[in-house]
Amino acid sequence: MTTHRFVATEWHNVLGTLPPAIRVASGDTVITETLDAWGIDKDDIKRRPGPNPMNGPIFVAGAEPGDALKVEIVRMTPNRATGWTRSSLAGNVVDPEAVRELPSREPVTWAIDRQAGTAQLREPVAGLEHLVLPLEPMIGCFGVAPAMGQAFSTATSAENGGNMDYRGFRPGATVWFPVAVEGALFFLGDCHAIQGDGEIVGTGIETSYEVEVRLTVEKDRRLVWPRGENATEIFSVGNARPLDQALQHATTDMFNWLKSDYGLSSTAASHLMGQVVRYEVGNVYDPAYTMVCKIEKKWLPAR
Amino acid sequence: MTTHRFVATEWHNVLGTLPPAIRVASGDTVITETLDAWGIDKDDIKRRPGPNPMNGPIFVAGAEPGDALKVEIVRMTPNRATGWTRSSLAGNVVDPEAVRELPSREPVTWAIDRQAGTAQLREPVAGLEHLVLPLEPMIGCFGVAPAMGQAFSTATSAENGGNMDYRGFRPGATVWFPVAVEGALFFLGDCHAIQGDGEIVGTGIETSYEVEVRLTVEKDRRLVWPRGENATEIFSVGNARPLDQALQHATTDMFNWLKSDYGLSSTAASHLMGQVVRYEVGNVYDPAYTMVCKIEKKWLPAR
Amino acid sequence: MTTHRFVATEWHNVLGTLPPAIRVASGDTVITETLDAWGIDKDDIKRRPGPNPMNGPIFVAGAEPGDALKVEIVRMTPNRATGWTRSSLAGNVVDPEAVRELPSREPVTWAIDRQAGTAQLREPVAGLEHLVLPLEPMIGCFGVAPAMGQAFSTATSAENGGNMDYRGFRPGATVWFPVAVEGALFFLGDCHAIQGDGEIVGTGIETSYEVEVRLTVEKDRRLVWPRGENATEIFSVGNARPLDQALQHATTDMFNWLKSDYGLSSTAASHLMGQVVRYEVGNVYDPAYTMVCKIEKKWLPAR
Amino acid sequence: MTTHRFVATEWHNVLGTLPPAIRVASGDTVITETLDAWGIDKDDIKRRPGPNPMNGPIFVAGAEPGDALKVEIVRMTPNRATGWTRSSLAGNVVDPEAVRELPSREPVTWAIDRQAGTAQLREPVAGLEHLVLPLEPMIGCFGVAPAMGQAFSTATSAENGGNMDYRGFRPGATVWFPVAVEGALFFLGDCHAIQGDGEIVGTGIETSYEVEVRLTVEKDRRLVWPRGENATEIFSVGNARPLDQALQHATTDMFNWLKSDYGLSSTAASHLMGQVVRYEVGNVYDPAYTMVCKIEKKWLPAR
N or C: which end of chain D has fewer CB within 10 A? Predict the structure, then answer.
C-alpha cells in the first residue's frame, strides 16, 4: 500500500477516457491538491478555466469494466484563506415567476479560518453579521470515466459519478463507482468548504483543498449507480433530471442492493425501505440533479 | 383555554367548506380519535370508506381568510394493536422498466406493542425476522378548508395542507396553515405509527390514534404554504408534482419567510439558505408530492 | 331533442357538486353566452370575479356515475368586439434564468372583427403591424363535477375536465367526460378566439362567446380521462404536472381505449400507437398541464 | 459544390471529437448509406454494435466554434426490405402502475415494400391485418461534436443534436446545428422508415437508408440549440428531461430567434408565440426527450 503525492500539472473539464496522469495500485492512497470550481489554486492563481477542473485521471491497476472502484475519503484539508459563493438563489429552485425578483448572481468572497475551522462572509451583510459557519468539507465532483468512449462535462453527473455536489461525500465516507474502462480512470476536484442541501445558490463555498483518498478495486461488482457508506448508513446515488427520476434511480438501486447483497426478497426489501428509508438531496442546480437514498446500517440484515 | 374531547360521528374524504363538527376557541386543545387510512377505528370496525377519512371540520372562532391556524401536535397515542402497510414499492418511485419486476401490492399487518412502543411484521418475512421498529407517530393528513369553495380529496395535498405524509408532523411539531375560510375548518386523520421518507410503499404503518392538538389563530399572517417548526428547526412545505416543483414552492416560501419575518435582504437570504438549508422528502406517492425546506434555528437572525 | 337557451345569472369558479342551474334531457342542445376568463360579458360588464367563471351546472337527466357525458361542440359565435391577452410569455415555459429578461405581464386588447372572422392587436406593436389572426374559437374550460364531493378551481383541470385550454376543443369536436355524480353537472366558459399550443402567455384571446353544445348520456362507459374525436381523429386527454405525467395519462388512456373498444391486444395497440400516434400540447400554463394523444381514424380497426 | 459518395468503414456510438472519416467543403453534398439502430446494414450484416452507430464524422472545412452547420436533408432512399420495431410501449410513457400490464419488449419485423413505399408487419397481428403504413423516412440521430471534449452516447441528445428521434427531420427539412469544434464533425445514422410522435415503443421502423445531405457552414450564428425549417415552418429544438424542460429550451430558443433575426421585441415575440406557436413531441423515450417549438412562416415579419 503506497501513498502517492500526486501534483497535477494539467486538469480536465470532462470525465472521459483520457491519458492517465498517474498510475497506482489497488489499495494505494493518493494525496493531491485540487483547484476550485473556477480553476483557482491555493495560491490564488487560475490554472485552468472552469467548470470544475479535475485532477487526474488516476489509473488504478487491475480495474476492469464491471468492477467497482472503492474510494475512501480519508482527509480533506483546506489550503486557502478564501472561498466564494454566488449571491442569489438559482432560478430553477424557486417558483418561475419569483425569478423576476431574485438578486443578480454575483460572486461573493468568504474568509476561511483554517485554525478555527470556520468560514465567514468577508464583507458584512446585514442580518448575517454573526454568521460563522463550521467547515464541513466535501468533494463536489469526482468519479470515473464513463463507458463507450463517452466524456461528460464536469458540470454534470451520471452513472459514473461527476458533479453530484452532495454533502455526504465528506471525510469518513466511502464511495463505490461502477468501473467502465480499464484502470477505472478516477478524477476529482471541485471541493467545497461547506454547502447546504441542493447547492441552491449554484455553489458551496468553493475553494482549494488537499485531499487524501484511498483507491481500491473490487472485482465484478456490476454496479449501475454510485453507492456509498458512512459510519452509520449505506446509500445509493441517482443522478438525473427531474429530481423525480434521480429519486427513481437511487430507490431502484437501493432495492436491488438489498436483494443482491443482503438476501432480501422484493417484498422484504419493500417492507424495509418503506418504513426506514431516508432521502437526501445532493444538488438541484446542475444539469443532472442528485438524490441519495439511505438506510441506517442498524436495520440491515447480516450479509 | 378549554380542552375538548371530540368524538367524531361522521368523517370526510375531502378537505372543503363543510358544516363544522365542533366549534372551539383560539387556544383550545382538542383530543380526538382518528380512523386509519381505510376508515377502520380502534375496535377494528370500518366506519367510513377511504381514502383517509378525516375528523372534522373543527371551526376555530375568530379565524378569517388571511390568518394562520397554528396547530401544535401535543400528543399521539396509538389505540390499536395492529397497523397495515403495502407489500411493494409503488410503481412511481422506481425506474419505469423496473415496475415489471415489483411484487404485488398486498396489504400486510404489523403488530403494534403499545407498551414497548414498537411495531413488528405479524407474519415473519425472511431476512426481517428481527426487525423491530420504534413507534414514530405522525399525522399523514391534516389541514384546513381551501379557498373559493374548492374541496380536495384526502388523497392529495395543496396550499391548505392535506395528505402530505411527512414524518416531521409528529408530537412536538407546530404547523401553521393558511386560513382561507371563516373558522379555518380544520381536519385531521390518517395517522402513521412510523413511515420512511417518501411513503414509498404508499403507506406508513397505518393505524388509529388518539391525537391531541392545540389550535390557535394568528391574525393576518398571509401565508401561502404550510409552515412549521420543531425544537431545533423552522420549515416550509411545498406540495405539488413533480418533486422539483414541490421543492420550488418550499424554497420560495422559506426565502420569503426569511425576508418578511427575519429582516433579511434577498441576497442575505440567498447566502444563508445556500449554505445551511436542508430538505426532507415528505411523500413521493400521492398525487401531489411534498418537499420540506428546513433551516436550523441556530442560524436565524433575531426576529 | 329540445334546444334550451340558457341565460346564466350566476357563475362558478369551481367545478363541483353545486345546485343545477338548468336541467336538460339526454340529447338536448344548450345555447348559452359565456363570460371571458375575467368574468366580463358581451357588454363589457364584469359579472363575476375570475378565474374563468363557469355557466352551469347543467344537470343532464339520466347521467349516473360510470356513464360518459358526450358533449358535441356545435357552434361558437363571438359576441364582443374585443378580447385580451397577456404581454409576456409565462415564466414556467422558458428557461428559469431567462425569466429575468421577460417583459411584464400586462393585459393587452385585441380587436375582433366578427364580419371578417379575424383578430388584431388594437394598439400597433412594431413588427406585428400586419398580424391578422383568423378566429379559431375553442372552449378553454369545461367539464363535469368530480367525484367524492371534490370541487376544483376553474384555473386547473383533472379527470373531470376543467381548464384544459386545448385548441382542439373547437366546433366540430365531440368530447366525452367521465360522469361522477348524478346528472353529470356540466360546466362551461372561458372561450378563446384563438390560442397557440400551450397557452404560453397564459391566455388565448379571451373573450365572450355564444356557445351551442349538444349533451348526451352514454351509459356505463367507465371512462377515466376525457376523450374526444373530430372529423379525422380520436384523442385521449391527460391533465397533470409535469407534462411527462400528462403524457403518461393520455397515452395509457389511448392504449386502454384501443384494447377495450377496438379489440386490439396490448401488443397490437403498441404496434399501432408506436408508428402513428400524434401528440398535441393543450396547456403548459395552468396548475395541471394538458397533453392530448391522437390517432387518425383511418388507422383504426373496425369496432 | 461537390457530391461525395461516403462509404463508411467504421462507425461510432458517440458524437465527439473523433478523427474525420471524410472532409468536405461548405456547400458540398454527401451521399452515404447508414446502418440501422442495431448496426445492421442493407445486406443484413451486423457491422457494429448499437446503439445507433453513426457514419462520420464529416469534417466541413471552414466550420469553427460559433458557426452553424446547415444540413439540408435532400433525399432518403430505403435500401433494405425489412425494418424492426419493439412490441410494447415503453415503460416511461404510461402510468407507472400500468407498466405491470405491458407486454414484453420483443423485436418485431416489418416488411418494407420499396416500390409501393409502404411497410407492413411481416407476421400478421390480429386487428392489424390491413395496416399498411406509408414510408415517411426520417433521421433518428444526427448532429455535430459537442464542445469542450465532451462525447455523448448516440442513445441521447443535447445542444449538439444527437438521438432526437423527431419525425420532422425528413427530406425537405433543413436543420442548423451549433458548431462547437473545428470542422463541425457531423455524424448521422439511425434512420426510420416511419415513426409516431414520441417514439413511444422505443423505435420507429428501424432500417438502413441511403441518405443525401448538403452541408453548409454559416458563419457566426451563435446558436444554442438545433433549429430547422421546412417548406412552411421554422422550428427550435430542445433536448432534455423532463419534457417540461425540453419545452422550456425550445420555447426560449424560438423567443430569442424571433428577437435576434426577426427584429421583434420581447413583447412582440410573446404576442406572436402566444397565439400561433405549435409544439411537436420528438421523442419521449431516450435519456433526453425532444420537444419542437414551431411557427408557420406566414406569421413571421420580414427579416
Answer: C
Question: Which of D100, D101, D244, D245 to mutate to probe the B interface, most B CBs <10 Å?
Answer: D100
- Please tell me which residue of chain C has the smallest CA distance to D197: C278
Q: How many CB atoms lie within 10 A of CB C261?
A: 14
Domains identified in chain B and CATH numbers: 3-81+135-218 (2.60.120.580), 227-299 (3.10.28.20)
% of chain B with per-residue pLDDT over 70 = 100
Exposure string of B211-222, with b = 16+ CB inside 10 Å and e = fewer, is: bbbbbbbeeebe
Closest-approach residue (CA) in chain A for D49? A148
Q: How far is A104 from chain C, CA to nearest CA, in Å?
A: 9
Distance to chain B for C37, nearest Cα, Å: 16
C-alpha to C-alpha distance for C229 and C176, rounded to whole angstroms: 9
pTM: 0.98
pLDDT tens digit string along B112-156? 999 999 999 999 999 999 999 999 999 999 999 999 999 999 999
- Rounded Cα gap, residues D40 and D206, in angstroms: 10
Q: How far apart are the first and last CA of chain D?
A: 27
In the prediction, which pLDDT does D127 show? Answer: 95
Contacting subunits of D (3+ beta carbon pairs below 8 A): A, B, C
Are the C-beta atoms of residues D188 and D213 closer than 8 Å to each other?
yes
Q: Omega into A57 within 30° of 0, i.e. cis?
A: yes
pLDDT higher than 90, residue B82: yes
Give residue-wise pLDDT tens across range D169-183: 999 999 999 999 999
Residue C1: pLDDT band (50, 70, 90) is: confident
Contacts of C100 in chain A (CB under 8 A): 91, 99-100, 102
DSSP string covering B82-103: EEEEESS--GGGS-GGGGGGPP
Task: Return d(Cα B130, Cα B132) in angstroms, integer.
Answer: 6
Per-residue pLDDT band for A302 (boundaries 50, 70, 90) equals: confident
